[in-house]
Amino acid sequence: MADMGKILITKLHNKLLALLIQNQQILSIQAQKEDDHAIGNIYVGRVQNISVNIGAAFVDLGGCLTFLPLAEAKYAFVTNRKPDGTLKIGDEVLVQLVKEPMKTKLAGVTARISRAGTYVVVNLPMPDSDKMRKASASGMADPEHRIQVSSKLSRKQQSRFKSMEALREIADTCPLIVRTNAGELEEEQPLIEEARRLCDELLHIVSVADKRTCYSCLYRSMPAYAEFVQNAYRTEYDEIVTDIPEVYETLRSLMPELHSPGTQGGIALRLYEDDRLPLYKLYSLETRVKELLDKKVWLKSGGYLIIEPTEALISIDVNTGKCEKGRQQEETFLRINLEAARMIAIQLRARNLSGMILVDFINMKKKEHEAELIEAMRSFLKKDPVQTNVVDMTGLGLLELTRKKVNSRFEEQMRQS
Fold first, then answer.
1. In CATH, what class is 294-415?
2. Confidence (pTM)
3. CA 314 → CA 280, 355, 399, distances in Å?
4. CATH ID of 6-34+223-285, from 1.20.1530, 2.20.200, 3.30.420, 1.20.120
5. pLDDT tens digits, residue range 59-74?
6. DSSP string, 233-259
7. Which of 155, 283, 362, 412 falls 20 to 30 Å from 218 in CA-CA distance?
């Protein structure tokens, strides 16, 4: 029987790590850092400059210059004048931080303000202006079209959530997205209560925004480790373990649905208190983190992967290594490639690799084996919460994948001070 998995939150090498571990394998990990400008924070920023050529507005958050796509101007809540779907230099605008600065790139913000919960993401509606009322007077005025549901849920579940009257009433005010975790709920009430609370919080933020000075932070996101817990699929773990009392108390207060180990319910929260064997040693985290930072990944068959991030793309090479080929060479290559495909899906998620990814599998002569490998790769990637796609085989026989960028790579997180 497969291990349901655990979320561990502990310190290692002066980093606060939050990780999801299952069957002795790290599925997802994040190295936390405390930052005044944290992802999810909502600010009143000032438009410092506009570049039509690159489609960007540069918004100052007070010592932190950020990038806002001009395509989002219609969603912008401008606090020092009546919003009209455009942005001008000097506008004071409500923005939410969504991307950290990386190398030469500025931090990214969005004018599409939202609040994410465990079961639902709630969005602010478009600002109330004449132009925007006309834009929303079509099909979007129907609350059913203002409810989106995770594509990972069944069609029956999607239909059920879209037809829930209480959700439709909330969506009439704030459009929302039902998350995958909602599919595990036996009752609808936790989903409704969370959606209503997040909608009220967003409306309160808008109501006070024009009364606050520029560069004010109107909402501070929860600690990064709490967001890690909130965003994890509830079907992948049944316990959260930490050896940090402050983390334990914070999670108890932010997530009252968590319960003590040994009691009936969903997810258990446990404070680990054995000083003789630290939590990071109990789960061999030093070794596992080192493996995630190494470019070579061994497979059980004796083959191995070489994972090399570059500026332009991620290169992954599959090698037979110590594997005995035997007489059935073609079947052996297929077996190694299928094992490699499963491991690649795990490594992309755990290392948080993104962008264009090229995989050089072991060459196979049979087209049906190639088709089986591509289909298996698609199946393995479906388990990734981050949007990941199989594009196609290139003319040189490389499998091209893409993975949406949501954060910096794990190795970069470990290097950050």
1. alpha beta
2. 0.77
3. 29, 8, 12
4. 3.30.420
5. 999 988 999 999 999 9
6. -GGG-SEEEES-HHHHHHHHHH-TT-B
7. 412
